[in-house]
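Moderator note: this is an archived Q&A kept for reference. The question asked for a predicted structure of one protein chain; the sequence and the answer are reproduced below.
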Amino acid sequence: MGTNSTNQNSIAEEIKSRLKSGNPCYHSVQNILSSRLLSRNLKIKLYRTIILPVVLYGCETWSLTLREERKQRVYENRVMRRVFVSKRDEVTGEWRKLYNEEFRDLYSLPNIVRVVKSRRMRWPWHVARMGRGERVYRVLVGKPEGRSLLGRPRHRWADNIRTDLQEMGCVYMD
């Protein structure tokens, strides 16, 4: 199917289409995810093997903003609410939905944003191995020509790599 990029470095439409294409996958396994016959670990494996690859196709080139990260977390929480069904409150004895903090405690694997960041970290090494003659390599290291727009520049992919490396405690090298 491919991934779309624009000259404005906006991937909001790409993420929106990825989440939309993940919805049919989610709805196809919705009954399985809410079944009490299967273990939580099996349901999480289903999510990570069926739904997540569709939603994160081409995420190595995404330059995420906080708004886009939030959209992805909301989508993941919606799926995880099927896996981790409601919980009985100790005080009132009524059933209630799980809070997002409780999801983080139960779901020990990295969330969707961390998966995007880890995949994005692997991409520059893959491109660097391709060699200087490849078009992808020239796009990675090239500088665009022409005038830039007024205002603050958009967050670039290389800036995201730099911040990801700083979060991990590594030193960024060109």
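Archived answer notes: The chain has a mean pLDDT of 81.
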